[in-house]
Write a structure and sequence with these properties.
The complex is a heterodimer of chains A (about 300) and B (about 425). Chain A is mainly α and about 300 residues long. Chain A has helices at about 15-50, 65-75, 75-110, 115-120, 130-140, 145-150, 165-175, 180-190, 195-205, 210-235, 240-250, 265-275, 275-300; strands spanning about 50-55, 60. In chain A, helix 3 (about 75-110) runs parallel beside helix 7 (about 165-175), helix 8 (about 180-190) runs antiparallel to helix 10 (about 210-235) and helix 12 packs antiparallel against helix 13. The N and C termini of chain A lie far apart (about 55 Å). By secondary structure, chain B is of the alpha/beta class. In chain B, the strands form two sheets. In chain B, strands 1, 2, 3, 6, 7, 8, 9 and 10 form an eight-stranded mixed beta sheet that branches. The chains are: A mainly alpha (about 300), B alpha/beta (about 425). The interface between A and B is medium-sized, with 26 and 27 residues.
Chain lengths: ~300, ~425
């Protein structure tokens, strides 16, 4: 068919562009529907619930900002945020250092790399409840290997999970055992650093430490940044290990003496022990704000030290 | 008749015929029998050997009522939490096991079905088969909501060999606090303790196990009307009783602390000879009897300054108010709480069913006789006085008692703080 120049043919409705748009929406529809139904919906509902008094057994009753006002007055909110922050400040850097160290070992290793990579990652595969039970044994004040080892050097080990001054640090130690995820990400980052940089530095006479500080760290900084943000977020949501450790010993959530009352434990207690769903939802939104703020701050701070290459 | 009228007539006839037909169909369908049929789910926090009576009772029940299929759901940890979530989601079992601490709360929230219509209905139950004192645990405001599963007072177990070794007289019904402390001191050596209390699992804040000590000193945690803790939780009598309790750990060191119990990671300190006496419920008795060559006895609790005193730990069964199969649930509930199924539970723990208990001969059994005798000293538990007990009384009590143990907070100060927090909480709740 030959088109005449004088009469413009009617534009078909299904232009290439429209077709493409439709295809796009069709292709992402399964995800989009799931996202709206299972993420946006519940999130919006939890925001609504946070303005109500709801015990799951009766209908939610609108109370306006009451839950948020109570949040500000509740001393356990500040306390549990402080416990969580203390834990985060100590455990996150420790975890990252351990993960980076293991990743460097793997990167340098020439033999049995696959075996060690699996071995280091293995704790991540173990269920967190099993990990907590295991560590309760390892840190058993009287019969645990940890304190037995200290006793060899004449040190009386602490009472770990039974001592309000030590319980949190016991959990920190426990958390450094399971860094397989971060380690793998570091390892991938290390593999991405061009060997040519090290060669050049070596020729210029840089020693190992200098090469690590001047090449590895800057080149790895985007990976460190990523791991840092993810670890901080995860750490603020710490729940399972602390839950198992504090309740398995016939203690209360966050015991001894609320020393391990993580924010999420307190949220859980408010929601499921006291059935204050509205209050717990408000707590969840507060935690969300805290995490967003911290992530934002880390992001701003990262501009000073993250190097994205030229 | 005009055509229109004919048509109308035919239509009316058809409508009438159809509705008659429908009626026949509806009314001729076999009505569910009073016993019910279908699936009945039962939830319990028991696990391991404690599920034996459930399994036996379910087996014999299903033989008797082949139309009903009973499914047991055991949730050994966080049972209450899971149950509430299930109730909220509408997926809770039809028959639920409930502890005494939740009775008032579950009734207030309308979680459990009032049983009187069933008790007096087509498939009735004679309530006089129960011991009234025990059955009253399942009643709130004169309405029966729960039937007793089992109950237990606190019991003082003692290791006869350790007492013989120390040349001490066995605990008896005339024992006082001083006798108990005296014996405990003589039985305490390095790595051995005179007495483990309260309970055998290491929770030294377990208020039900501590409650008898308050009763023995004439103290209560809360006023009779359930509105006041100020002046009760921190009364002179309460503080003195708790001081005596705390001293067993801190001053006289005759009782293993939570750390000590924890270090043994779940091993029973009594059967392993680490403690000479144990102050806990009756439920481990069956296990202790099963330990070969273990020479022990039981006694009632000692008398304090205000005389003897004890409290019950009680568990009951209720029908979920949301259950879709209440008739069958009731048939099963009746079977396990009052009929043949109750015999299975009686083998494991004390039964509330009088004929079964009498047939068991507990009052003459060497182990059970002292326990049954102490039932005369049982006092009311404070949980029944207010539905806000857990949140308003127990929470501050536990928190402050823990400070006494771990931070050397004086008992008086701890209970003053607990009473202040508890009173504020109660006032707020009761004002709503």
């Amino acid at each position: 068919m030959t088109a005449t120049a004088s009469i413009a043919p009617p534009k078909p409705f299904w232009t290439a562009r429209r077709r493409e748009t439709l295809t796009f929406y069709l292709v992402i529809a399964p995800w989009l529907i799931g996202f709206v139904l299972f993420t946006v919906g519940p999130v919006a509902y939890s925001l609504y619930i946070s303005f109500t008094d709801w015990n799951m057994l009766r209908d939610p009753a609108w109370v306006g900002l009451d839950n948020y006002r109570t949040l500000l007055k509740d001393p356990d909110i500040g306390h549990s945020l402080w416990v969580t922050t203390k834990y985060t400040i100590v455990s996150v850097p420790l975890r990252l250092v351990v993960a980076l160290f293991l990743a460097i070992l793997l990167n340098e290793a020439t033999m049995l790399v696959g075996f060690f990579r699996t071995a280091f990652y293995l704790p991540g595969v173990v269920a967190s409840v099993a990990v907590a039970v295991l560590w309760q044994w390892l840190l058993n004040p009287r019969f645990g290997p940890f304190n037995k080892m200290l006793a060899v050097f004449g040190i009386t080990g602490p009472r770990w999970f039974n001592d309000p001054d030590w319980a949190l640090w016991g959990l920190v130690i426990m958390s450094t055992w399971n860094v397989g995820g971060e380690m793998l990400i570091f390892l991938a980052g290390l593999k991405g650093i061009p060997g040519i940089l090290y060669e050049a530095a070596e020729i210029d006479g840089a020693n190992r430490l200098q090469r690590f500080i001047r090449i590895t760290l800057p080149m790895l900084s985007p990976t460190i940044f990523f791991n840092l943000v993810m670890s901080v977020i995860g750490s603020f949501q710490t729940f399972d290990g602390a839950f198992v450790i504090s309740t398995a010993r016939a203690g209360d959530l966050g015991s001894p003496l609320k020393s391990t009352l993580f924010y999420m434990l307190y949220l859980y207690k408010s929601a499921f022990t006291w059935l204050k769903m509205g209050y717990a939802a408000a707590m969840a939104w507060l935690l969300f704000l805290v995490i967003v703020t911290i992530t934002f701050l880390i992001n701003r701070w990262s501009r000073r030290w993250v190097f994205y290459g030229s | 008749m005009s055509t229109t009228n004919k048509r109308l007539f035919a239509l009316s006839v058809m409508v009438i015929a159809l509705s008659l037909l429908a009626n026949t169909v509806i009314f001729s369908t076999p009505r569910a029998t009073a016993q019910g049929s279908g699936v009945v789910r039962i939830g319990s926090w028991d696990s391991g050997a404690a599920l034996e009576p459930f399994n036996n009772a379910i087996k014999s029940f299903e033989e008797k009522y082949p139309d009903i299929d009973v499914q047991l759901e055991s949730v050994p940890q966080e049972y209450g939490t899971k149950l509430l979530a299930q109730i909220a989601a509408g997926t809770a079992p039809d028959v639920i096991q409930v502890g005494d601490g939740d009775v008032a709360r579950y009734v207030r929230e309308g979680i459990v079905e009032p049983l009187d219509p069933y008790i007096n209905g087509d498939n009735p139950l004679d309530m006089s088969v129960f011991y009234p004192g025990v059955a009253s645990f399942g009643q709130v405001g004169g309405v029966t909501y729960f039937l007793t599963k089992d109950y237990s007072p606190l019991v003082l177990y003692y290791n006869k060999d350790m007492f013989d070794e120390a040349g001490l007289e066995y605990p008896n019904e005339n024992w006082t606090w001083d006798d108990l402390l005296n014996a405990a001191q003589k039985l305490t050596t390095k790595d051995r303790w005179g007495i483990q209390l309260p309970g055998h699992w290491g929770d030294w804040l377990w208020h039900r196990g501590i409650q008898p000590i308050l009763v023995q000193n004439g103290a209560t945690m809360i006023s009779e009307d359930g509105l006041t803790v100020q002046g009760y939780l921190n009364s002179e009598a309460t503080v003195a009783a708790l001081q005596w309790y705390v001293d067993l750990f801190k001053k006289y060191k005759v009782a293993p602390t939570r750390d000590d119990v924890d270090a043994y990671a779940g091993a029973n300190l009594f059967t392993s000879g680490v403690v000479a006496m144990q102050w806990t419920g009756r439920w481990p008795l069956k296990d202790y009897k099963a330990v070969e060559g273990f020479n022990f006895g039981t006694a009632g609790l000692p008398a304090g300054p205000a005389g003897k005193g004890n409290v019950l730990c009680w568990a009951g069964f209720a029908i979920n108010a949301d259950s879709k199969n209440k008739e069958a649930a009731w048939t099963f509930l009746k079977y396990i709480a009052a009929e043949d199924g109750a015999k299975e539970f009686a083998n494991y723990a004390l039964t509330a069913v009088r004929p079964i208990a009498e047939a068991q001969g507990l009052t003459t059994d060497p182990y059970d006789a002292p326990i049954m005798e102490d039932l005369a000293n049982v006092a009311q538990i404070p949980e029944f006085l207010t539905p806000y007990f857990n949140e308003c009384v127990l929470e501050p009590f536990r928190q402050n008692l823990e400070k006494v143990f771990l931070e050397d907070k004086p008992v008086q100060q701890a209970m003053d703080d607990a009473a202040a927090a508890g009173q504020a909480c109660l006032d707020e709740k009761n004002a709503q």
